[in-house]
Amino acid sequence: MRQGFAIDLLGQLQAVAAGVTIELESALEARRVTAAGERLGLTPRVAIRVNPDFDLKGAGMRMGGGAQQFGVDAEQVPALLADLAGRGLDVLGFHIFAGSQNLRSDQICETQRRTVELALRLAPGLRDGIRYLNLGGGFGIPYFDRDQPLDLAPIGENLGRLLTEQIRPALGSAKVAIELGRYLAGDAGLYVTRIVDRKVSRGKTFLVVDGGLHHQLAASGNFGQVIRRNFPVALAHRVDAEPAETASVVGCLCTPLDLLADEAALPAAQVGDLVVVFLAGAYGLTASPTAFLGHPAPPEILL
Protein backbone atom coordinates (compact mmCIF):
# COMPACT_ATOMS: atom_id res chain seq x y z
CA MET A 1 0.00 0.00 0.00
CA ARG A 2 1.37 3.45 -0.91
CA GLN A 3 2.21 5.50 2.18
CA GLY A 4 0.13 8.51 1.07
CA PHE A 5 -2.85 6.30 0.37
CA ALA A 6 -2.47 4.54 3.73
CA ILE A 7 -2.36 7.82 5.66
CA ASP A 8 -5.41 9.10 3.85
CA LEU A 9 -7.31 5.85 4.38
CA LEU A 10 -6.44 5.75 8.07
CA GLY A 11 -7.67 9.29 8.43
CA GLN A 12 -10.98 8.33 6.84
CA LEU A 13 -11.39 5.34 9.09
CA GLN A 14 -10.70 7.40 12.21
CA ALA A 15 -13.77 9.44 11.27
CA VAL A 16 -16.01 6.36 11.13
CA ALA A 17 -17.41 7.15 14.55
CA ALA A 18 -18.74 10.39 13.08
CA GLY A 19 -20.70 8.46 10.46
CA VAL A 20 -18.33 8.32 7.48
CA THR A 21 -19.16 5.69 4.87
CA ILE A 22 -16.39 4.56 2.51
CA GLU A 23 -17.64 3.65 -0.95
CA LEU A 24 -15.60 0.75 -2.30
CA GLU A 25 -14.45 0.88 -5.91
CA SER A 26 -12.86 -2.57 -6.11
CA ALA A 27 -12.12 -5.83 -4.32
CA LEU A 28 -8.60 -4.59 -3.55
CA GLU A 29 -10.01 -1.52 -1.81
CA ALA A 30 -12.16 -3.84 0.30
CA ARG A 31 -9.05 -5.71 1.44
CA ARG A 32 -7.26 -2.44 2.22
CA VAL A 33 -10.19 -1.12 4.25
CA THR A 34 -10.44 -4.42 6.11
CA ALA A 35 -6.75 -4.31 7.03
CA ALA A 36 -6.90 -0.69 8.13
CA GLY A 37 -9.99 -1.36 10.23
CA GLU A 38 -8.22 -4.22 11.98
CA ARG A 39 -5.21 -2.04 12.77
CA LEU A 40 -7.42 0.69 14.22
CA GLY A 41 -9.82 -1.62 16.02
CA LEU A 42 -12.78 -0.23 14.06
CA THR A 43 -15.60 -1.71 12.03
CA PRO A 44 -15.54 0.26 8.76
CA ARG A 45 -18.87 1.37 7.29
CA VAL A 46 -18.83 0.74 3.55
CA ALA A 47 -21.00 0.73 0.46
CA ILE A 48 -20.17 -0.69 -2.95
CA ARG A 49 -19.87 1.60 -5.95
CA VAL A 50 -21.59 -0.40 -8.69
CA ASN A 51 -20.82 0.00 -12.38
CA PRO A 52 -24.28 -0.67 -13.84
CA ASP A 53 -24.96 -2.75 -16.93
CA PHE A 54 -26.59 0.32 -18.56
CA ASP A 55 -25.63 3.95 -19.08
CA LEU A 56 -27.36 7.31 -18.84
CA LYS A 57 -28.27 8.20 -22.43
CA GLY A 58 -27.48 11.78 -23.31
CA ALA A 59 -25.02 12.21 -20.43
CA GLY A 60 -22.41 14.91 -20.85
CA MET A 61 -20.02 12.65 -18.95
CA ARG A 62 -20.58 8.91 -18.87
CA MET A 63 -19.79 7.39 -15.47
CA GLY A 64 -21.29 3.91 -15.78
CA GLY A 65 -22.10 1.18 -18.27
CA GLY A 66 -19.62 -0.77 -20.37
CA ALA A 67 -16.00 -0.95 -19.28
CA GLN A 68 -15.30 1.70 -16.63
CA GLN A 69 -12.61 2.68 -14.16
CA PHE A 70 -15.43 3.50 -11.75
CA GLY A 71 -16.92 0.96 -9.40
CA VAL A 72 -17.43 -2.79 -9.50
CA ASP A 73 -19.16 -4.30 -12.53
CA ALA A 74 -22.71 -5.26 -11.58
CA GLU A 75 -22.13 -8.90 -12.51
CA GLN A 76 -19.13 -9.07 -10.14
CA VAL A 77 -20.97 -7.60 -7.14
CA PRO A 78 -22.52 -10.88 -5.84
CA ALA A 79 -19.08 -12.49 -5.57
CA LEU A 80 -17.68 -9.42 -3.83
CA LEU A 81 -20.57 -9.40 -1.36
CA ALA A 82 -19.91 -13.04 -0.55
CA ASP A 83 -16.27 -12.20 0.12
CA LEU A 84 -17.17 -9.18 2.27
CA ALA A 85 -19.44 -11.29 4.46
CA GLY A 86 -16.41 -12.65 6.31
CA ARG A 87 -14.35 -9.48 6.46
CA GLY A 88 -15.86 -7.71 9.45
CA LEU A 89 -17.13 -4.75 7.45
CA ASP A 90 -20.49 -3.05 7.96
CA VAL A 91 -21.81 -3.15 4.38
CA LEU A 92 -24.65 -0.64 4.11
CA GLY A 93 -25.63 -0.81 0.46
CA PHE A 94 -24.84 0.54 -2.98
CA HIS A 95 -23.84 3.64 -4.90
CA ILE A 96 -24.93 3.45 -8.54
CA PHE A 97 -23.93 6.39 -10.73
CA ALA A 98 -24.54 6.13 -14.48
CA GLY A 99 -23.65 9.61 -15.77
CA SER A 100 -23.80 13.36 -15.32
CA GLN A 101 -24.84 16.62 -17.04
CA ASN A 102 -28.10 15.43 -18.60
CA LEU A 103 -30.90 17.85 -19.53
CA ARG A 104 -33.54 15.26 -20.49
CA SER A 105 -35.88 14.41 -17.63
CA ASP A 106 -37.21 11.31 -19.43
CA GLN A 107 -33.70 9.87 -19.70
CA ILE A 108 -32.93 10.59 -16.05
CA CYS A 109 -36.23 8.98 -14.98
CA GLU A 110 -35.49 5.86 -17.03
CA THR A 111 -32.02 5.61 -15.51
CA GLN A 112 -33.41 5.97 -11.98
CA ARG A 113 -35.92 3.19 -12.64
CA ARG A 114 -33.21 0.89 -13.92
CA THR A 115 -30.96 1.84 -10.99
CA VAL A 116 -33.61 0.82 -8.47
CA GLU A 117 -34.24 -2.44 -10.34
CA LEU A 118 -30.52 -3.22 -10.26
CA ALA A 119 -30.22 -2.43 -6.55
CA LEU A 120 -33.16 -4.68 -5.69
CA ARG A 121 -31.68 -7.45 -7.82
CA LEU A 122 -28.40 -7.22 -5.90
CA ALA A 123 -30.03 -6.80 -2.48
CA PRO A 124 -30.27 -10.52 -1.56
CA GLY A 125 -26.46 -10.66 -1.39
CA LEU A 126 -26.39 -8.23 1.54
CA ARG A 127 -26.53 -10.00 4.90
CA ASP A 128 -28.36 -7.14 6.62
CA GLY A 129 -30.21 -5.87 3.56
CA ILE A 130 -29.81 -2.47 1.92
CA ARG A 131 -29.70 0.36 4.46
CA TYR A 132 -28.19 2.94 2.10
CA LEU A 133 -28.90 3.46 -1.60
CA ASN A 134 -27.30 6.24 -3.60
CA LEU A 135 -29.15 6.61 -6.91
CA GLY A 136 -26.47 8.85 -8.42
CA GLY A 137 -27.19 12.10 -10.18
CA GLY A 138 -27.10 13.25 -13.76
CA PHE A 139 -28.97 16.54 -13.22
CA GLY A 140 -27.54 18.97 -15.76
CA ILE A 141 -27.53 22.74 -16.14
CA PRO A 142 -27.81 24.71 -19.41
CA TYR A 143 -24.32 26.00 -20.21
CA PHE A 144 -24.91 26.92 -23.84
CA ASP A 145 -27.45 28.86 -25.91
CA ARG A 146 -29.18 25.81 -27.36
CA ASP A 147 -29.50 24.05 -24.00
CA GLN A 148 -32.92 23.84 -22.37
CA PRO A 149 -33.20 23.81 -18.56
CA LEU A 150 -33.93 20.47 -16.95
CA ASP A 151 -37.61 19.95 -16.08
CA LEU A 152 -37.59 18.71 -12.48
CA ALA A 153 -41.33 17.99 -12.15
CA PRO A 154 -41.30 14.59 -13.97
CA ILE A 155 -38.17 13.57 -12.05
CA GLY A 156 -39.80 14.39 -8.72
CA GLU A 157 -42.92 12.44 -9.66
CA ASN A 158 -40.84 9.48 -10.82
CA LEU A 159 -38.79 9.45 -7.61
CA GLY A 160 -41.99 9.61 -5.57
CA ARG A 161 -43.37 6.55 -7.32
CA LEU A 162 -40.10 4.64 -6.96
CA LEU A 163 -40.03 5.37 -3.24
CA THR A 164 -43.63 4.43 -2.50
CA GLU A 165 -44.05 1.52 -4.92
CA GLN A 166 -40.62 -0.18 -4.88
CA ILE A 167 -38.02 1.17 -2.49
CA ARG A 168 -40.03 1.45 0.73
CA PRO A 169 -41.90 -1.87 0.33
CA ALA A 170 -38.63 -3.69 -0.32
CA LEU A 171 -36.12 -1.72 1.76
CA GLY A 172 -38.16 -0.17 4.55
CA SER A 173 -36.41 2.81 6.11
CA ALA A 174 -33.21 2.58 4.05
CA LYS A 175 -31.49 5.93 3.48
CA VAL A 176 -31.93 6.99 -0.15
CA ALA A 177 -29.68 9.65 -1.66
CA ILE A 178 -29.33 11.47 -4.97
CA GLU A 179 -26.43 13.69 -6.05
CA LEU A 180 -27.11 17.29 -7.05
CA GLY A 181 -23.59 18.76 -6.99
CA ARG A 182 -23.42 20.50 -10.36
CA TYR A 183 -27.12 21.31 -10.37
CA LEU A 184 -26.79 23.21 -7.08
CA ALA A 185 -23.27 24.62 -7.42
CA GLY A 186 -22.84 25.37 -11.12
CA ASP A 187 -24.95 28.51 -11.29
CA ALA A 188 -23.69 29.69 -7.89
CA GLY A 189 -20.19 30.63 -9.03
CA LEU A 190 -18.56 33.25 -11.26
CA TYR A 191 -15.01 33.33 -12.55
CA VAL A 192 -13.61 36.84 -12.96
CA THR A 193 -10.35 37.61 -14.75
CA ARG A 194 -8.76 40.87 -15.95
CA ILE A 195 -7.75 41.76 -19.51
CA VAL A 196 -4.00 42.46 -19.60
CA ASP A 197 -3.54 42.77 -23.38
CA ARG A 198 -5.56 43.26 -26.52
CA LYS A 199 -4.17 42.24 -29.89
CA VAL A 200 -5.30 41.62 -33.44
CA SER A 201 -3.72 38.76 -35.37
CA ARG A 202 -4.57 38.55 -39.08
CA GLY A 203 -7.99 40.00 -38.56
CA LYS A 204 -8.88 38.10 -35.35
CA THR A 205 -9.15 39.93 -32.01
CA PHE A 206 -7.69 38.35 -28.89
CA LEU A 207 -8.29 39.52 -25.33
CA VAL A 208 -5.47 38.16 -23.18
CA VAL A 209 -6.43 37.77 -19.50
CA ASP A 210 -4.46 37.12 -16.33
CA GLY A 211 -6.30 33.84 -15.71
CA GLY A 212 -7.13 30.86 -17.85
CA LEU A 213 -7.53 27.10 -17.89
CA HIS A 214 -5.35 26.72 -14.79
CA HIS A 215 -8.22 28.37 -12.88
CA GLN A 216 -11.24 27.29 -14.93
CA LEU A 217 -10.51 24.12 -16.89
CA ALA A 218 -14.17 23.37 -17.61
CA ALA A 219 -14.77 26.71 -19.34
CA SER A 220 -11.72 26.11 -21.53
CA GLY A 221 -13.36 22.99 -22.96
CA ASN A 222 -10.66 20.65 -21.68
CA PHE A 223 -12.75 18.88 -19.05
CA GLY A 224 -14.35 16.28 -21.27
CA GLN A 225 -16.18 18.34 -23.91
CA VAL A 226 -16.29 16.49 -27.22
CA ILE A 227 -17.24 19.66 -29.11
CA ARG A 228 -15.97 22.86 -27.52
CA ARG A 229 -18.58 25.56 -26.90
CA ASN A 230 -18.33 28.81 -24.96
CA PHE A 231 -19.65 29.19 -21.44
CA PRO A 232 -21.64 32.44 -21.09
CA VAL A 233 -19.21 35.39 -20.77
CA ALA A 234 -19.61 39.13 -20.28
CA LEU A 235 -17.72 42.28 -19.34
CA ALA A 236 -18.31 42.95 -15.65
CA HIS A 237 -19.09 46.67 -15.96
CA ARG A 238 -21.13 46.33 -19.16
CA VAL A 239 -23.14 43.14 -18.68
CA ASP A 240 -26.22 44.53 -20.46
CA ALA A 241 -24.37 46.40 -23.22
CA GLU A 242 -24.95 45.39 -26.82
CA PRO A 243 -22.15 43.43 -28.51
CA ALA A 244 -19.80 45.59 -30.54
CA GLU A 245 -17.18 43.08 -31.63
CA THR A 246 -16.25 39.43 -31.84
CA ALA A 247 -13.24 38.51 -29.73
CA SER A 248 -11.57 35.44 -28.30
CA VAL A 249 -10.72 35.47 -24.59
CA VAL A 250 -7.43 33.64 -24.05
CA GLY A 251 -5.37 32.94 -20.95
CA CYS A 252 -1.76 33.68 -20.12
CA LEU A 253 -0.37 30.13 -20.48
CA CYS A 254 1.86 29.01 -23.34
CA THR A 255 -0.64 26.60 -24.86
CA PRO A 256 -3.39 27.12 -27.47
CA LEU A 257 -5.67 25.10 -25.16
CA ASP A 258 -5.84 28.14 -22.88
CA LEU A 259 -9.05 29.49 -24.40
CA LEU A 260 -11.93 30.74 -22.26
CA ALA A 261 -14.17 32.00 -25.09
CA ASP A 262 -13.78 31.55 -28.83
CA GLU A 263 -15.04 34.42 -30.98
CA ALA A 264 -17.56 35.59 -28.39
CA ALA A 265 -19.85 38.55 -29.08
CA LEU A 266 -18.82 41.23 -26.55
CA PRO A 267 -18.93 44.99 -26.06
CA ALA A 268 -15.69 46.66 -27.14
CA ALA A 269 -13.18 45.58 -24.48
CA GLN A 270 -10.03 47.31 -23.29
CA VAL A 271 -7.04 46.46 -21.13
CA GLY A 272 -8.10 46.57 -17.49
CA ASP A 273 -11.68 45.41 -18.12
CA LEU A 274 -12.95 42.41 -16.15
CA VAL A 275 -14.25 39.37 -18.02
CA VAL A 276 -16.87 37.29 -16.18
CA VAL A 277 -17.40 33.61 -16.94
CA PHE A 278 -20.79 32.42 -15.68
CA LEU A 279 -21.81 28.94 -14.48
CA ALA A 280 -18.37 28.50 -12.94
CA GLY A 281 -19.42 27.08 -9.57
CA ALA A 282 -18.90 23.42 -10.45
CA TYR A 283 -15.60 21.85 -11.55
CA GLY A 284 -13.78 25.15 -11.18
CA LEU A 285 -10.55 25.85 -9.34
CA THR A 286 -10.14 22.47 -7.63
CA ALA A 287 -10.69 20.68 -10.96
CA SER A 288 -8.07 22.79 -12.75
CA PRO A 289 -4.27 22.46 -13.12
CA THR A 290 -3.43 25.31 -10.73
CA ALA A 291 0.29 24.52 -10.70
CA PHE A 292 0.64 24.97 -14.47
CA LEU A 293 3.94 26.87 -15.05
CA GLY A 294 4.01 27.98 -11.40
CA HIS A 295 1.40 30.72 -11.67
CA PRO A 296 0.03 31.89 -8.31
CA ALA A 297 -3.31 30.60 -7.11
CA PRO A 298 -6.23 33.02 -7.49
CA PRO A 299 -8.30 34.16 -4.50
CA GLU A 300 -11.75 32.68 -3.93
CA ILE A 301 -14.45 34.86 -2.40
CA LEU A 302 -17.56 33.43 -0.74
CA LEU A 303 -20.55 35.75 -0.56
Structure description:
Strand 12 (245-250) and strand 13 form a beta hairpin. It is built from seven helices and 14 strands. It has 303 residues and is of the alpha/beta class. Strands 1, 2, 4, 5, 7 and 8 form a six-stranded parallel beta sheet that branches. The mean pLDDT is 89. 27% of the residues lie in helices and 22% in strands. 30% of the residues are buried. It has two domains: 3-185, Alanine racemase (TIM Barrel), CATH 3.20.20; 189-286, Lyase, Ornithine Decarboxylase, Chain A, domain 1, CATH 2.40.37.10. Helix 4 runs parallel beside helix 5.
Which key phrases capture this entry?
six-stranded parallel beta sheet, elongated, six-stranded mixed beta sheet, Lyase, Ornithine Decarboxylase, Chain A, domain 1, single chain, 303 residues, 2 domains, 22% strand, TIM Barrel, alpha/beta
Q: In one word, what is the shape? A: elongated
- Round the Cα radius of gyration to an integer and report it: 23 Å
CATH class of the largest domain: Alpha Beta
Helix content bin: 25-40%
CATH architecture of the largest domain: Alpha-Beta Barrel
- The CATH H-level superfamily of the largest domain is Alanine racemase
Tell me the number of structural domains.
2
CATH topology of the largest domain: TIM Barrel
Tell me about the largest β-sheet: 6 strands, parallel
Q: What series of H and E elements makes up the topology?
A: HEHEEEHEEHEHEHEEHEEEE
Low-confidence stretches: none
Structural class: alpha/beta
Task: Return the average pLDDT rounded to an integer.
Answer: 89
List the total number of helices. 7
The CA-CA distance between the termini, in Å, is 41 Å
Number of strand elements: 14
Estimate the strand proportion: 15-25%
